[in-house]
């Protein structure tokens, strides 16, 4: 406040800075499952591919805040809305998006891929496409789980988690997460590990404070 006093003209700027400082944050850790080895190398087509199959992405959790937000932003994440195909794997293995987000599926391999999903949340089939082709982005308009597959390479798996909230992030591979620029109030913090494992905790967020929440498992 003292810093703001000399320049009345910058009053708005100071108010903005204070509003940012007043936002709540949550940080913590989610106990993640051990990575399981997919038998991708034994896929019947493995020796016919132009390059080796990369290992699948290690497991991470999606952490998000749910509740009634009075003035929520369109989005609060820095994660790109993209699932690439690279070295015959999807990357990332899990992509959280807010409902209404358009996701691109670029092919970075020197082979065809064919991304599709039969999930109830979103059904689509991009058909076969190469590196230099650009299939249309898919808009995920309904919250839920969308499982991705490749019609050509059956070992390829990924999940898009469509969320009804702008406040979400992913843990790192050690389970650490940090959610920032959150509103104050009472909400539910959820951790999504897979379709069978979801954890949640009631949280009471205060302006300017960082809450510590650890999900130690079921
Ligand atoms: Cu493929």
User: Strand order within the widest sheet?
Assistant: 5-11-10-7-8
Strand content: 35-45%
User: In the CATH hierarchy, what is the class?
Assistant: Mainly Beta
Distance between the termini: 45 Å
Examine the coordinates and then state which fold CATH places here, giving the name of the CATH topology.
Immunoglobulin-like
The overall number of domains is 1
Which small-molecule ligands are present, each listed once?
A: copper (II) ion
CATH architecture: Sandwich
Q: Tell me the Rg in angstroms.
A: 20 Å
Residue stretches low in confidence (pLDDT < 50, at least 5 long) are 1-19
Helix content: under 10%
- Give the overall pLDDT as a whole number: 88
General shape: globular
Number of strands: 16
CATH superfamily: Cupredoxins -  blue copper proteins
Q: Helix/strand-derived class? A: mainly beta
Q: Helix count?
A: 1
Order of helices and strands: HEEEEEEEEEEEEEEEE
How would you describe this protein?
- The chain has one domain: Cupredoxins -  blue copper proteins (Immunoglobulin-like, Sandwich), CATH 2.60.40.
- 5% of the residues lie in helices and 37% in strands.
- It has one helix spanning 11-21, and strands at residues 24-29, 62-66, 84-86, 89-91, 94-98, 101-103, 115-118, 123-125, 138-140, 144-150, 157-163, 168-170, 176-182, 185-194, 197-205, 210-212.
- Strand 7 and strand 8 (123-125) form a beta hairpin.
- The longest helix has 11 residues, at 11-21.
- Residues 1-19 have low confidence and may be disordered.
- Copper (II) ion is lined by residues 85, 113, 150, 152-153, 156.
